[in-house]
Amino acid sequence: MAEQYLFILGRQPQLSVAEIAAVARARQLAITWQTITASYALVEGDITPDFFKQLAGSIKLAQVLAEVEYKPNIIRDFVFNYLSSLTGGCLFGFSWYGHKIPSWLKPMGLELKREIKDSGRRARLVESRQDVLSSVVVQKNHLLPPRGTEFILQPFSETRIIIARTVAVQEFAEWSERDYGRPERDSRVGMLPPKLARLMINLTQGELAEPLLDPFCGSGTVLQEAVALGYKSIWGSDIDKQGIERTAANLQWLRQKHPEWQFEEKLLAADVRQLKTQLKDIKFGAMVTEPYLGPTSRIFDIKQYQAVAKDLVSLYRLALKNLAVLILPGRRLVMVWPVFHLGAKLLYLPLVNELSSLGWKVENILPPQAPPAWCDKRGSLLYERPGQRVGREVFVLRKV
Ligand SMILES: C[S@@+](CC[C@H](N)C(=O)[O-])C[C@H]1O[C@@H](n2cnc3c(N)ncnc32)[C@H](O)[C@@H]1O
Fold first, then answer.
1. 221 CB under 6 A from ligand 1?
2. Which of 150, 170, 190 is the last residue of a domain?
3. Are 144 and 207 in the same domain?
4. S-S: 177 plus which of 181, 280, 314, 377, CB 3.0-4.6 Å?
């Protein structure tokens, strides 16, 4: 029987789950979804640390060791027996993923450490002030196999709890290098968070050997992540020449940092509305883009929204027409559209109904086990950070 794994999901769980589903499909890996909540997904399948490393939206991957009764002595006995079955010293820690950390957990850890030492083995307990050990703490304290053990305690119901062992955590140092280490940033036009860029690329289920395009490439965040994922031929265009120069500098920097990543880039200053005439002889296997999202300042009234929406819809309509000609049939464009906040209301762009006449079909790959509230009628997935005036709606569009 296949193993069970627990994915600890990031801040946008619906996107994280869609990403896991997309990567599993792209790798032709059969997985069975067992439980999906806003903080974790329980999955059966042969999930490897390499699978996890490709993801941007999941924080930890843990192999399920047992599902036991939610009682301190039962949990304690299980952990003691598990640690006893391992060879060498015992380096371990706990992360509590329930609502409120129980008062018995810390004393239990200390008692286990004492007992293991009394049995003549070395023991070290990694503790934190937080309920959960961060990815940084897990990695820096060597809590990943084979050296250490981070026990994930995930209450599953009123009476049951899952005990799992972390096998991979998000590579915080690599993310921060590509985000803050790159030479060219332009916060004026708003950069796509690199994790969202990677997640969107994963949603395309693209083939690494086929060319990938970002037609509003800005400083090249999408292209950087495509290179890190192993795409070999990356294309970027933008109406702004300076954007193209920034992208070129960022890719040059990436090439120096990682000479092992072999890729070719083609960058051009071009208006997306004329792209099909500029790129006649090429068909793309994947497209990922965050276009111009309109003014980033607050929208104060419905009239203002209507004016902005009118301009954006006419730009996106022409972009979608051009891009449909340039993509191989059946391949995907993953695109962000803005969502505007007006008081408590969310205002969307009125373009979904035109998509099929433009050659695109909205694809929703959330598994049926996902919470019903995640399934937006528009078929998109929302990405929002608290306090943002403009949210992002992520569309997976398939060329029909
Ligand atoms: C939100 S930014 C993209 C940011 C990019 N994802 C990044 O992380 O750097 C939108 C980009 O669209 C470009 N743009 C605006 N109108 C365009 C058009 N008609 N054709 C092509 N690019 C356009 C802008 O120059 C800008 O760089």
1. yes
2. 170
3. no
4. 181
Helix (H, G, I), strand (E, B) or coil at 169: strand
Shared domain check, 231 and 267: yes
3-state helix, strand, coil in the chain (%, to 5): 35, 30, 35
Specify whether 182 is located in the same domain as 33.
Answer: no
Assessment of whether the complete model's pTM goes beyond 0.90: yes
List the CATH number of the domain containing 38. 3.30.2130
The minimum-distance atom of ligand 1 relative to the CA of 192 is 8
How confident is the model over 317-359, as pLDDT tens digits? 999 999 999 999 999 999 999 999 888 889 999 999 999 999 9
Q: Are residues 208 and 345 in the same domain?
A: yes
Nearest CA to ligand 1 atom 3: 218
Distance 215 CA to ligand 1 centre (A): 8
Q: Is the CB of 274 under 6 A from ligand 1?
A: no
Residue ranges making up the domain that contains 160: 4-170
Ligand 1 atom index nearest CA of 247:
9
